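A further point concerns the way the authors explain their paired sequence and structure data. Each protein is reduced to its one-letter sequence and a matching series of backbone shape codes. An entry of this sort, consisting of the sequence and the corresponding backbone structure tokens, reads as follows:
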Amino acid sequence: MGISQILPVFVALPLLSSFLIYLLGSLFKKDKISDLLGNLASGFLLLFAIFALIEVSQKGRALYFVGGWRPPFGILLVLDGLSGFMLFVITLIAFMATIFSINYMARFTAKHKFYALLFLLIAGMIGITLTGDLFNMFVFIEIAAISSYALVAFGIEDEGLEAAFKYMVMGEIGSLTILLSIALLYSATGTLNMADISQTIAANGTRPVVLFCSILFLIGFGIKAAIVPFHAWLADAHPSAPAPISALLSGVVIKVLGIYALVRVFYNILGMHPVVVNILLFLSGFSMLVGVLLQLGQNDIKRLFAYCSVSHIGYILLGFSLGTPLGIIGALFHLLNHAVFKSLLFLDSGAIEYATGTRRMENLGGIARKMPITTVSGFIGSFAASGVPPFNGFWSKLILILAAVEAHQYPLAGVAGLTAILALTSFIRMQRRVFLGNLPESLNGIREVPMGMKVPLLALALLSILFSFLILPGFREFFLDLAKDAVLIGRNYSQTILGGGL
């Protein structure tokens, strides 16, 4: 069986898992069944994603025509270097989150409902990365978004319910702007197939309606990605969610629903108009700086990590906005690295809250002597996020700064460097107040988290070191260059898709 025939499995498996876990969990009321099915499904998805990457490296791309109907009339699934790269990122973090959930989510009731919503979220994200149809992208965005709203509110506490409501309002405003833009594009081109729209726009030139749609897409995807000034929902939603969901939201959701969709639409469909490029460059620097300044003033460790994500989205956006090969490589590398170390940090915060019952730094201190694994992984995640060598975050930040210098965007290079220094200051303060110092008497009885929670912490900490080597020749060609080429192919995307498939 070729990779083309497996493409529907990426969407069908999490949807089927969601249904089965909910059904069996409701019938038998056994959390072990939900844990087993959830981890098997996420593990198989990760293996399929690795297989897909290998196939793409050998064959270039794979297409699946739903129902046998070819574009522009039928629905199309597309696997290229960029979608294969994103599949790996999604399934890797999802697998870590499901392992962590075995013990962490035991404190919550109705664990089967949690896994059912989680796999709907995973199915939505995978659908976004694989679809070759603009309206289906919107449908999958809504599947992922609605399930994430419910997951943020899963603890049904006041904080979570309020955060989920804010998230939903902002998220649906973004969805409406995306849907309006899709409707306008359909009226202008008469098609919803991405490659066909790209070909039509390339033939007719960038008309005012296309530029207007570009602005609408910028707003919609900007909200989904929490780009400043559309970031207000993130600082409430990410801390309020259960730790595995916080890891997914910050590690992959804002990137898939926001950054990936934005890059696919602008590079491969609409084209990078100079007006759009200038707006994106400004927003990247603004997000880096505002995110880290807000991060400096936080006492809740999860809110600190949430604002850190705003800043790092700015780094990723910088690389894609530059549009140079080095900038794209840096953006993709940082997207992967951020997914790893930010998921690690949110899982660490979940471990700390699980053991101590608090996320407030003033109520913590000295937990290193009681929780060594959590402490070591927390230090590694913090240093990677700060851009300290030899951890993976250093190399991707360095590449992005060099790319900005190469493109003569010296102010943005300076902002990126300053942001890294300020982030390091914030994380050193957090480490000192949480892990070091004297242990409060109220925490004398705490102990390290269960093995099921330590495994993903150790695995992600190790990956934060090992992924530094992905920039070396050999690794880079197999992994990052495939995704970079899929981005830089630009509107030639339409020729590769409409020309046939494997």
